[in-house]
Structures are given as structure tokens and as C-alpha cells.
Amino acid sequence: MSDNHLPTAELQALDAAHHMHPFTDSAELARKGARIITSAKGVWLTDSDGEVILDAMAGLWCVNIGYGRQELVDVAARQMLQLPFYNTFFQTSTVPAIMLAKRLAELAPGDLNHVFFNGSGSDSNDTNLRMVRHYWAAKGQPERSIVISRWNGYHGSTMGAASLGGMKGMHAQGGLPIPGIVHIDQPDWWSEGGDMTPEDFGLERARQLETKILELGADKVAAFIAEPVQGAGGVIVPPVTYWPEIQRICKQYGILLIADEVITGFGRTGNWFGCQTMGFTPDIMTCAKGITSGYIPLGASIVSDEIFNTLDAADEFAHGYTYAGHPVACAVALENLRLLDEDGIVERAGSEIAPYLKEKWESLTDHPLVGEAKIVGLMGSIALTPNKATRAKFASPTGTVGYYCRERCFANNLVMRHVGDRMIISPPLIITKAEIDILIDRARLSLDETLAYLNAEGLN
Ligand code: PMP
């Protein structure tokens, strides 16, 4: 397919004329022209000029199984022929939705045994927001409706999910957050930890939750939502003290704990779910992305027996999406989960690949531009800084150096993202050690080029 498309320049012109890109400065993109990805295999992308690029982001943190798995294609094709669509409203069900719900209940920790299907991560979080309020109303406490989340968390782009998120730039557009959502600070020790030890800082940030609950009144708070490891916020790995304290506080005040596992689910952190790596058990998990390895859209809210039983005894939950439990998406997810399990992909990612990647990734701290290197499983970040000892920020507006470094990576055929002046990775779980070596070589080259640029421009 890659050799019968229009010339790149023509595709770029059409793209600029008609295709509106998410989270993109369209005028800048029109000037540069989009890089057009035409095919992929394993961890490698091919663009319309035939360049081969190492995808260290697994698309958007989602292609956990790697590109080009024929098994997923075959399952989708078979399911489309047999039953391309049927809904799960009005007392009907489908075999793929049933079998996937059963499998997710097996994989999920604790008593998270019940699955509400959605179409994406964002609308899963909208489901969660409505569901926790419905839950408390069903328990006779409708005033328990506030959801607490975190600044610089990311939970999606819909009105509800973007409100739960703590991205101020998103809130500034469209009158967000919606009422009933309040934010506390993130556990980002590198940027905000000052003179505290990471452990003390982790406790301090967790206890902000307790302070906020007491300020609002526990009888007004429905839930706390957070990513086990912040992804879009810059792969912020919390200090080890953080999550146990959050769990304690939620338990003490009877607040539901929602783990947004959209990125951290399905092997990303070396276990099936990020909460297992971070050592806590939520009441609800938000899932998407890796559930199908991104081959087809699907989201899910996986909830505890207690939540299910309460909802079961209440009025019907007046909520649902046309594509909830889409049979093709569920069939693909089931096959994806089978392969992640039976091919040993999640197991190997945790036991073999993650330690190798950690060693290589952390070796980047010997580079003059790199302050801390953080990594958990196969998601990692490095903080770029002009002064490691003081954890200083660059004089240029935040993100200028990160963006430059990202551009060098892309030119060197490595997809690595920047969040502000942090560089982040989240490669497919099937990445090999040899491919990790290439990733690190290209990252180092891009860092060298960034440093040379900063020195030449007198910006460092
Ligand atoms: N939650 C988290 C933690 C995410 O990282 C994302 C997407 N990056 C979302 C929710 C939203 O998912 P989607 O883009 O599928 O709506």
C-alpha cells in the first residue's frame, strides 16, 4: 500500500487543507507539512518518503503489542463477517463483550469484577464521573458529589475528562472545569520538591488530599482520581511514600479511589496494571489504549463488587454509548490480551526488558543536559536542565528546549515526545534489547545536537 499513494507534498497539502489535527498548531503544521506514516511493523514506522523511524512512544502510549500482528487482523475480519455490530442496550449482549468482561475481571486486581464498556479513555472517565455520583446517590448520600483530581494530571479531552484533568491550558478553553471538580498538587519532586527529600515530599503531596477532604467535608467528596504514574504530564513517577498514603486517606474517609490506567494498564509498568506496581487497590480502573493495543478504539471502566452491587440495587444508570461493548473491538481486545499473556509479552516486559531499559535510560544522566532520569516498566522520562545540582529551569520559556530536542529526535528517526522540558518514552512492550540500544544511541545523538545548539545560541 505504501507505494501507490500520492506524492508526499501533495498529501501534506491536502492534509493542511482539510484535516484538523488534535493538539496541533495548524498554521505551523501547514508550513512544515505533516510527516505521513504509511505502515509499521514491530516498533518501526515507515513514512511516505520511505524513512524508517523507531517509535519510542508506541503511537500514543497504546501499541503495547507492537505493530503488524496478523492475529488481531484475522480476529477483526472474522468478527466483522459474523457480527459487525450489535448493541448492549435493551437486554441484549454479544459473545465478545461477555468474554472480554470475564477476562478483564480475571486480570483486574482485588474485587474489580464488573466492566462497563466505553469507546475511549475520555468517555470512560466521563462514565466514572457520572457513575460515582450515581453510586453515592444510590447510597442515600447525593451531596457526596465532588471529585478531587490533580493539577497536571491528564484524563482526556471531553468536558468531564478535561475538567478532571489538571491541564490549565485545556481549562482555559471552553469554560472548564465544570462544577464539582477540585484539584490538588501533583507529586512531581523534580520540579516542585524544593529542599524536601522525595519521601517527605511524597507524603506532603498525598496529605494535600486529606487537607482538601477536611476543607470540603468528607460527606461532600465522592472520589479521588489519579494516574498511578502521570503520563501526559511528563511521566512523573511519584515518590514511594505517595500511593500508600493516598490509599490510607481514601479508606479513612470512605472516598472512592479511581485509578486512571489508560496508559499504565496492560503491561506498561511491568505488571498488568499500574496500581499493582505502585502498591494500591482502587475501586474503579479506567482502561483504554493498551486494552486493544490501539488496533481499534475501546475503553472500559472496571468496578468493584461493592459499586456494582450498589448500582444493581438502584435505579438504572441512565448512561451509555452506542459503541459500548462493540463486538469487533471486544474481539480484538480479547485476542490482544491472549497474546500479551500467552506470548509472555507482559511477563518479559517486566522481568527482562524493563531492567535493561532502566539501566540504559538511567545512563543518560551522564549527559550534561540530563538531570533526573525516571522510569517504571516501559515508561520513562528525563528532565533537561541547565544545572543538575540546582534542578534549574532554562531561561527560555518552558518547553522551548524540549521541543528542539524532540525535533532533533524526529530528524534522527526516533519518536520521543517532550512535555515541557522533559523528554518521554513509552515504547511497545515487544521492543528488543538491540532496539533499546538504537533508541538510546539516537536519544544521545539528539541530546548532543540540542546541547550544541544551546551552546551556539548562547542559551545554556
Ligand atoms: N486518561 C489518561 C491517563 C490518558 O493518558 C488519556 C489519553 N492520553 C486519556 C485518559 C484519554 O484517552 P482517550 O484519548 O482515548 O480519550
Structure characteristics:
single chain; 460 residues; alpha/beta; Aspartate Aminotransferase, domain 1; Aspartate Aminotransferase, domain 2; 7-stranded mixed beta sheet; 4-stranded mixed beta sheet; 17 helices; 15 strands; 16% strand; globular; binds 4'-deoxy-4'-aminopyridoxal-5'-phosphate; PyrdxlP-dep_Trfase; transferase; aminotransferase
Output the structural class.
alpha/beta
* Biggest pleated sheet: 7 strands, mixed
Helix content: 40-55%
Q: Strands of the largest sheet, in order across it?
A: 4-10-9-8-7-5-6
Shape: globular
User: What is the CATH level 1 assignment of the largest domain?
Assistant: Alpha Beta
Strand content: 15-25%
* Chain-averaged pLDDT: 97
Q: Give the oligomeric state.
A: single chain
Q: Please, how many domains? A: 2
CATH fold type of the largest domain: Aspartate Aminotransferase, domain 2
What is the strand tally? 15
